[in-house]
Amino acid sequence: MTTRYLEYLERYPARPRPTTLRHLAAALRTTPAVEKLMPARCRRLIAPGGVGRFAFVTSTGPVVLLVNFAFVDATIVVRAAEGTVIDGHGDGPVGFEVDHIGDALGQGWSVLVRGQAHHVRDPAELNRMRQDATVWPWPGGEREMYLRIVPDRITGRRAEAR
C-alpha cells in the first residue's frame, strides 16, 4: 500500500476493500478486532435476559428506550405499562439491541434483533408469560402489559481492543 493511498484514506471518506484492510492490518502488525457472531451464538448471549434497548420509528423519528427483558421460547419478552409509548408500538416492526462491555478486558459484544412486536393477549399465553418470563422493570409500578418480539433477523458482533 502506498503512503499516498494511506493519506487518502485518512483524509477522505472511503470504503477500502477487505484485501486493502488486511494489508493495512499486516503493515501495522495488528489483526481485525471485530468478529461477526452467528445467530445461534447471539441467542446464547441474550438468553439470560437483562437490560436491552427497544427501538421503533415514530412520526418524528427513531426512538430507543432502555427496558428489562427475558428470553422465552426464542422470543424477547418485555413488560410495559398500559398507555405508554412502548405499549403504543407493541404491534409492529421493532429493533432490539443488547450489549455487554467489559472495560477491564477491553472487549464486548452487541446483538441486534429485528422483528415484529406483538401484545400478549391470549389468557393462556399471558398466564404462561407471567410464570416463565421473569421480567422485573427497574422503574417499578404497574407494568402488566406483556410484549413479545418475534425475531426475523438476529445479528451480532464481538469486539476486542488490541
Give the biggest beta sheet.
6 strands, antiparallel, barrel
If strands are numbered along the chain, what order do they take across the biggest sheet? Answer: 2-3-4-7-6-5
**Secondary-structure element string:** HHEHEEEHEEHE
Average residue-wise pLDDT:
83
Name of the CATH first level of the largest domain: Mainly Beta
Give the total of domains.
Answer: 2
At the fold tier of CATH, the topology name of the largest domain is Pnp Oxidase, Chain A
Helix fraction by DSSP (H/I, runs of at least 4): 25-40%
Number of helices: 5
Number of strands: 7
What is the general shape?
Answer: elongated
Percent of sequence in beta strands: 35-45%
Distance between the termini: 22 Å
Gyration radius, in Å: 20 Å
List low-pLDDT spans: none
Please characterize this protein's 3D structure.
Helices cover 25% and strands 44% of the residues. The chain has five helices and seven strands; from the N terminus they run ααβαβββαββαβ. With 162 residues, the protein is of the alpha+beta class. The longest helix is centred in the N-terminal third of the chain and has 10 residues, at 18-27. A hairpin with a 2-residue loop joins strand 2 and strand 3 (61-72). The protein folds into two domains: 3-32, no CATH class; 35-160, Pnp Oxidase, Chain A, CATH 2.30.110. The chain has a six-stranded antiparallel barrel. The chain has helices at 3-11, 18-27, 39-46, 85-88, 123-132, and strands at 34-37, 50-58, 61-72, 75-80, 92-102, 107-119, 145-160.
